[in-house]
Specification:
The protein has 147 residues and is mostly beta strands. The chain is built from two helices and eleven strands.
Amino acid sequence: MSGGKDPTQMTDEDWKQVLSPEEFRVLREKGTERAGTGEYDKMYPVKGHFKCAGCGNPLYSAQSKFNSGCGWPAFDKCYQGSLKVEVDRTWGMTRTEIMCAKCGGHLGHVFMGERFTNTNERHCVNSVSVKFDESEPQLPEAPLNVK
């Protein structure tokens, strides 16, 4: 993780010192891991949470994870204030990119209206962008409600 430095002040060289090459490619260069290859794709813990692999910011509870069958970890809500979003117009389409609110690391994309869960959101997250932690932060959760 950020090695004790303020993640908002870190340069690419700083990040390369603390992230693996694949973590750097995905978190800092907005890459994507191949579908079905991620460590957390088929992991469904009962307790714990997922935090940003770059800075350790708590992002998702274990209870928010669900099986969407998309090949990447899927979540239907996040800890309030943990994510920021931007419009992503790469690859000839318009999507909503999700990033860690603390360090700006690329996590994946959020998709609306698929009716997988009651929140009607699927946060499609690269496994390499997150780390599982067995602790359970007492933080409020909510869907992003992206329009």
